[in-house]
Amino acid sequence: MDLLLHPESKTLEFKRDLSSMEPILKTIVAFANTAGGTIVIGRDNDGTVVGIKDVFRAEETLANSIADSIAPEITPEIEIATIDKKDLLVIRVSHWRGPFYLKMEGMPKGVYIRLGSTSRLAGPELLAELQRSHLVPSYDQQPLFDLAKSAIDSEMAAHLFERAGKPFSEEKLRSLGILISVSGKLIPSIGGLILFGKKQQKEEFIPEVEVRCARFLGVTKTSILDHLDIEGTIIDAIEKVPKFIARNTRLTAEFGQMQRKDIPEYPPTAVREALINAIAHADYSIRSSHIQIAIFNDRLEIQNPGMLPFGFTLEDLKSGVSRIRNRVISQTFHALRFMEKWGSGYRRIIDACKEGGYKEPKWEELGTSVRITFYPHVQSFLPEKMQFLAREEPSNLTERETLLLGLFQGHKSLPFREIAKNFPYPISERTLRYDLAQLKAKGVLRSKGQGRALVWIQC
Questions:
Q1: Domain membership of residue 453 as a residue range
Q2: Structure confidence at residue 371 as a pLDDT band (50, 70, 90)
Q3: Angle at which helices 268-281 and 236-247 cross, to 10°
Q4: Phi–psi pair at 20, nearest 5 degrees
Q5: Is the peptide bond before 267 cis (omega within 30 degrees of 0)?
Q6: pTM above 0.70, yes or no
Q7: What is the C-alpha to C-alpha distance for residues 81 and 307, in angstroms, rounded to an integer?
Q8: Residue 115 and residue 24 share a domain
Q9: Are strands 387-388 and 445-448 parallel, antiparallel or unpaired?
């Protein structure tokens, strides 16, 4: 029985026996509400198959308990399996339209969902998402009754549609659900405001929706080298995040017989695809629902708020199954050619990494968020075969000098105004010029040109 070889997960749990029925019932409820799953009874925590005595009586007891304790009525498949002459009960629970709950606790206290390998109570936000998942409208399709259509930046929308070679009109915004007709009046949807909302209205109604980027020193979040919080709409992140990544990662050069080939530390096409997917599939109903891009010395992470949609697993994602959480955002991204056909994002990311010689990224569901981790190109660790365009920092640098040098990652040269603009925290012009002079004296930077044409170059 192959199941016994796998660890507990979002869709698999083991129980030693039926002596404590409540945890089993909670898991059945959680599986039914989330993405289905299997419970094997008769296996100990250490992996030992202990079996069940009088398995037919145990099966009857379990079936009766499910019928008496869970609402609405649910009928999971209960099978008997025999391993090494020991009987096991295998409960296969499908994802059903609920929400399901324990009768003794009632609604909403008795509603459980599956987060990782544990069954937990569904809080108000997750319960609302669960209930919404069974309705036709998605969260981003909901109208904002207190706003007028003027809250949408139609000039920005028109520019993006023109760039995509698509006709633009007010009717187009209505067909995508960006604008909704209510009592003869056009008002924006939540998705419309996320995509094209003007700054004032966005900050008032959805201030928590943003993209945050950070470059950390080392492999933990102890010290920040650089950061950027994307201002504007969520679409601005599609252009600004790759620029942030470029300035905070290494560019390696491989020299062949006739020409040089530049190799980014991380695969640009795959990272952009992952970013678009994170924006399209984030759960914007969660408070503080910001998308995070974190760069470390050994990895790049893109994390979006929201567990996988109910009824959906990582295996579904990898097999090309599509489940749309935000219909307005996804349809608009498709219309603007940011996204191709549904369910193809995973395959494109894998293919882009493979084609560029990058390690396959890792997808994880971390409670109420989903993270994809990219790893540096293998050539980044072969300095004897490559020439790095970003040097290791000398050990005698001050903290500010280290931060300054970090700005040159991905850049051959920078003018003073760009250095001042992108420094992680405010410092005086006098202090900044002093630090640059110190880096020049230490042989780390050099300057070229004069006046406004002067640029700083990493040695």
A1: 391-458
A2: very high
A3: 140
A4: -125, 100
A5: no
A6: no
A7: 32
A8: yes
A9: unpaired
